[in-house]
Amino acid sequence: MGIESEWIWMDGAWVPFGEAQVHVLSHTLHYGLGAFEGIRAYTQPDGRAGIWRLDEHLQRLLRSLSMAHLSCPWGVEELHEVCLQTLERNHFTEAYLRPLAFLGTGAMGLGARGNPLHMVVAAWAWGAYLGEEGLAKGVKLRTSSFQRNHPNAALARAKIVGHYVNSILARYEANDDGFDEALMLDGRGFVAEGTGENVFVVHDGVVITPEPVNILPGLTRSSVIEILQHEGIEIREQSITRDAFYTADEAFMCGTAAEVTPIASLDRRTIGDGRPGEVTRRVQDLYTRGVRGQVDWLAQHISQLTR
User: Fold this and answer.
1) Strand (E) or helix (H) holding 248
2) I need a surface site. Which of 14, 26, 276, 303 has the fewest CB within 10 A?
3) Active site amino acids
4) Using CA of residue 110, residue 111, residue 113, residue 116, what is the dihedral sign?
């Protein structure tokens, strides 16, 4: 499935897909200083598109830029409307949205500070990030040889463009070795997250997830915690070793792209009986229906076009 659409929003104007271009000397292309978000829209019961946790994603984008010393001329309200219009102009009811802020041409070098900040919002149709079979049966992980960035080496709470080289290398390594995804450890040897997902394990009905120290505290992670609390399932945030996965009853990972994906094995060790467990299926079902407006108490997180 490609990433084509009809229109992309760039710096306040609607640009045809094929004309949305940047210069090869754009600063972010060379040095990676920029920020982005990944947001999903789902078809709602009335047939229109609804965007899941839109304003929270946009608020995080602006916080990421602020942490990177970048000033954004567009606010949440303006970008909120742009995201809705991007779906409408491209006739999407289900799509992945990508707001991206990047530095353009001007000065080069690490000390450059005056280059213009550009903002784009694009959308495309995107299915299951780790595959439909992965969503249904679970994915195979391997512990990566690449550590997650230390919190004093990178901004863990920011979605900075260049940070994702760390994730890409770990993902390539896992895929080349025959696994679906990588599990990344922190500098202490404790579990951090996947390359683009937060992770959870279930032991004796209790769900455990790494504390948000050097991980991105994902908005899907927040949704999962909300679902668990609503369902009366105990959730703990604490340090986890990778062997906690080896002995877990079940495990799953989550993210905007990955949604809620069961984990079948880690390092060729089967987790539980190798099939998605009861807690995983419960969370996955509520999340899948919730983002589509089918769960009343989760509907507060959905933004829709009013026209």
Assistant:
1) none
2) 14
3) 159
4) negative
